[in-house]
Design the sequence.
């Protein structure tokens, strides 16, 4: 370990650490634009310059490694002065269109100006007009009047995706970021560019002009759209006070995780958040619900428990089938296993998830479910059932998730399931599957509940609900536990605490 | 005190066809290489150059022997020599004379440097504008290969060296050593972050020595006649002679070889024939455009590194630009600031934006539209660029501009 003093605080860090990183570890923030922990160092914005005792010049802290006994000052008058000067220079020709800039509120330049400068501009020369809407590809737009040439975007495409679509063209003050002719940005990580842009130079068509950043509620969760389970932040506009139902997820950001996704997420995860609201199931529906007047999920549980008890009493377990999905949390899958397989002794218990798609060789996996490894660890068979498997001699079919509707054509489903007497669907989304079922119960997406997923690397990670589900929807675990208490062999088994312990023991 | 016959680097330059290997050999060419390869170890060559205190002629004045010593010994990676022939510093035109008149001396110097450091591949990065000289160098490489002075088993020894001539594309910043390496690798000429220094991580990420043409051209003499003789040729602590490129308002502009430590006044008034058209001397830029300007009263000075640093300037590339009393300083400032703004690579903020801002003010001053506070702004910008950029170009721009504005403030205010 190397010991050094930063702003009168003694810090001990690994050899090879830079001053900026060491300061960060000690809770001291050094302003920076071009530095990004996951990109090769550039050392060009010069905003992170600090004073090192015994050195005549200020040194860039992002690229200067610590040495034993170093004494660093990050807030000395010289440092502040240099910082102000760099900010002044960067702002000379800056567009200053913060009122209409998507980055306003989360812009490093804005924050640092506020924190360190607040100096009035003295630049009296003509400002060069630059292009403000350069399409870069992938729905990204570049505003060259806002660009500070930190080259994070260029370095990202060089070192992370290896696709190198962007480069710096021209020289000196005429330098600009541009694509090579006929080769726009085209990769599955292009969305990261607007996220790493420290100013509002690269904006994203998906988010552009949709809201101001300060209205967004940021909630941490795990991306369920593939087997990687990247850590993400869902950002939601909470909606307007007198307009119910206007709350809306508007953006997905990555959340650093060294073990899983580093600092990045793919475009599938970033732009795929539409599923959260699309074709959302909001009410208990289906002919059965109408006939019996099932209004709440308690009614549903009571009715199902009675049916299940009756079937068990008659020993007709062979005439029941259950479909769970690998979008359920490990806890839910465990409960499903306990209720249906262990206690009710239903033999036909299948897992159906979304259709596999091509992986991208980096983060995105072929499987498009977040918990396939969890389902496997709990002993669920992962062979896909055919519709015949589900319908054969079945009196009752219970399906979790909308994925049958993705796997089979509607006419196939209709024909195959016509003979099944009672069909129950638990799903957050009705993609046309609901009309083949007698009872449709709205449930929630992973972002709306607590649980754990085990990703494709075998890492098990917990997450908690980012948002409350629609009021009519019920979490699958709540439903399964209630069902377990009603029909299980030992009702006391189905308490949350007991379950959590059992899940832990059940997982490898 | 300048003696006739003090010419070493430019010796035999009057000889026609000196650039041919036969003429060069006839005047004692490649004797130093033969001596070193056959009778000296690489370490002895290195020690001799260290003892000669051969300071770099490119601008920074760093001793060549010490630079060579930084190259790690215990490494399997190939080592490279890059000769910096970019000669982009305004007012400097010495390397072109050396290369066009006597390309073989450069090659011989490269053989010696490569032998001392254990290099098998060397490059000459030559300024894009020097097309004819590049062709001459290429011809010289071909001749040297044919005569066994390049290629494998030079002079019957185990030592071998390949030399490649690489033309730049016309950029000032590519004379900065790490930008030169980037350019040589086929990338944008952007200076690299240091450390690591090129001696450990250089061309193609391998240990690399980068020396100026004139520095390398001095080595054959040092090896042949010894460090002692070389040191004696200088008039001060700096060893050897130097090539001074004199331009501007003098009667006989040109390239002059003088002992290091010669007097600036004598150079201008004795060698370069004094002022042109009877004009008066107003200012001298003594070391290429990036050296802070000297006033008329400051030119009784020795032309060596230490003396000029003491006077607040630098010897740099020894490009001496003489400015007469009829040259408006607003024009000098505009040209100077405009040059650096044009040549800034644009990587780091202070240099990219600071130089452009200074240039815009300077251009306004020249057209007579000065506003209050303009000169203060230039001085403030220069102070904020100095020492705060990634490469030395920030200093190269800030120092001369600040000196010009400070020393000619009255005139600038009066005439703008």
Sequence:
């Amino acid at each position: 370990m190397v010991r050094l003093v930063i702003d009168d605080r003694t810090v001990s860090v690994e050899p090879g650490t830079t001053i900026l990183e060491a300061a960060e570890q000690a809770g001291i923030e050094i302003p920076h634009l071009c530095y990004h922990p996951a990109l090769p160092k550039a050392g060009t914005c010069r905003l992170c310059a600090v004073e090192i005792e015994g050195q005549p010049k200020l040194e860039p802290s992002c690229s200067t490694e610590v040495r034993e006994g170093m004494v660093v000052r990050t807030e000395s008058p010289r440092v502040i002065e240099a910082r102000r000067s760099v900010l002044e220079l960067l702002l000379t020709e800056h567009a200053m269109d913060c009122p209409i800039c998507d980055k306003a509120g989360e812009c490093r330049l804005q924050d640092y100006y506020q924190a360190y400068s607040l100096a009035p501009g003295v630049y009296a020369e003509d400002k060069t007009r630059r292009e403000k809407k350069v399409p870069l590809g992938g729905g990204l737009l570049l505003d060259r009047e806002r660009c500070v040439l930190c080259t994070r975007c260029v370095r990202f495409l060089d070192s992370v995706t290896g696709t190198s679509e962007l480069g710096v063209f021209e020289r000196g003050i005429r330098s600009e970021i541009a694509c090579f002719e006929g080769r726009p940005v085209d990769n599955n990580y292009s969305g990261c560019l607007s996220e790493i842009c420290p100013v509002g130079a690269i904006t994203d068509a998906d988010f552009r002009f949709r809201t101001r950043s300060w209205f967004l509620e940021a909630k941490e969760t795990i991306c369920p759209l593939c087997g990687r389970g990247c850590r993400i932040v869902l950002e939601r506009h909470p909606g307007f006070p007198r307009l119910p139902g206007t709350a809306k997820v508007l953006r997905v950001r990555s959340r650093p995780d060294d073990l899983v996704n580093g600092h990045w997420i793919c475009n599938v995860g970033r732009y795929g958040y539409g599923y959260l609201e699309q074709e959302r199931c909001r009410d208990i529906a289906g002919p059965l619900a109408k006939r019996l007047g099932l209004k709440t999920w308690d009614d549903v549980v009571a009715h199902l428990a009675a049916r299940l008890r009756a079937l068990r009493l008659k020993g007709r377990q062979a005439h029941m089938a259950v479909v769970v999905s690998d979008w359920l949390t490990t806890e839910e899958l465990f409960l499903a296993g306990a209720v249906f397989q262990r206690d009710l002794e239903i033999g036909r218990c299948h897992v159906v998830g979304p259709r596999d798609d091509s992986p991208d060789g980096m983060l995105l996996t072929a499987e498009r479910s977040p918990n396939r490894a969890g389902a496997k660890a709990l002993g669920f068979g992962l062979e896909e059932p055919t519709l015949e498997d589900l319908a054969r001699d079945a009196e009752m079919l219970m399906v979790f998730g909308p994925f049958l509707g993705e796997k089979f054509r509607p006419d196939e489903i209709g024909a195959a399931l016509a003979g099944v007497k009672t069909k129950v669907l638990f799903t957050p989304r009705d993609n046309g599957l609901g009309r083949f079922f007698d009872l449709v119960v709205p449930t929630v997406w992973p972002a709306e509940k607590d649980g754990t997923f085990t990703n494709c690397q075998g890492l098990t990670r917990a997450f908690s609900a980012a948002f409350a589900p629609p009021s009519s929807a019920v979490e699958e675990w709540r439903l399964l536990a209630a069902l377990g208490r009603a029909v299980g062999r030992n009702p006391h088994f189905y308490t949350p605490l007991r379950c959590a312990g059992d899940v832990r023991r059940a997982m490898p | 005190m300048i003696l006739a016959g003090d010419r070493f680097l430019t010796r035999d330059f009057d000889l026609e066809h000196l650039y041919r290997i036969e003429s060069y050999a006839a005047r004692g060419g490649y004797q130093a290489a033969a001596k070193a390869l056959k009778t000296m170890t690489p370490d002895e060559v290195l020690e001799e150059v260290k003892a000669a205190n051969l300071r770099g002629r490119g601008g920074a004045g760093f001793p060549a022997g010490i630079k060579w010593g930084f190259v790690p010994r215990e490494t399997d990676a190939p080592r490279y020599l890059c000769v910096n022939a970019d000669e982009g510093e305004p007012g400097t035109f010495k390397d072109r004379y050396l290369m066009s008149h006597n390309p073989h001396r450069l090659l011989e110097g490269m053989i010696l440097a490569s032998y001392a450091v254990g290099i098998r591949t060397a490059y000459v990065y030559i300024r894009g504008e020097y097309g004819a000289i590049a062709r001459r160098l290429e011809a010289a490489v071909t001749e040297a290969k044919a005569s066994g002075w390049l290629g494998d088993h030079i002079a019957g020894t185990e030592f071998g060296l390949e030399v490649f001539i690489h033309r730049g594309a016309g950029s000032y910043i590519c004379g900065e050593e790490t930008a030169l390496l980037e350019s040589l690798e086929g990338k944008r000429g952007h200076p690299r972050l240091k450390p690591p220094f090129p001696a450990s991580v250089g061309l193609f990420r391998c240990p690399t020595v980068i020396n100026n043409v004139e520095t390398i051209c001095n080595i054959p003499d040092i090896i042949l006649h010894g460090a002692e003789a070389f040191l004696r040729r200088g008039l001060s602590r700096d060893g050897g002679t130097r090539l001074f490129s004199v331009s501007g308002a003098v009667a006989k502009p040109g390239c002059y070889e003088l002992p290091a430590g010669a007097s600036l006044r004598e150079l201008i008034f004795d060698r370069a024939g004094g002022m042109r058209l009877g004009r008066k001397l107003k200012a001298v830029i003594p070391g290429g455009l990036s050296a802070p300007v000297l006033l008329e009263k400051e030119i009784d000075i020795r032309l060596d590194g230490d003396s000029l640093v003491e006077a607040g300037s630098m010897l740099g590339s020894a490009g001496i630009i003489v400015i007469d009393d009829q040259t408006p300083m607003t024009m000098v400032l505009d040209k100077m600031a405009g040059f650096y703004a044009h040549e800034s690579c644009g990587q780091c903020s202070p240099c990219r934006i600071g130089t452009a801002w200074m240039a815009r003010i300077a251009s306004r001053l020249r057209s007579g539209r000065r506003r209050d506070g303009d000169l203060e702004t230039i001085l403030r910008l220069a102070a904020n660029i100095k020492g705060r950029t990634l490469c030395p170009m920030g200093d190269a721009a800030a120092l001369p501009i600040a000196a010009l504005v400070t020393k000619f403030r009255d005139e600038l205010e009066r005439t703008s």
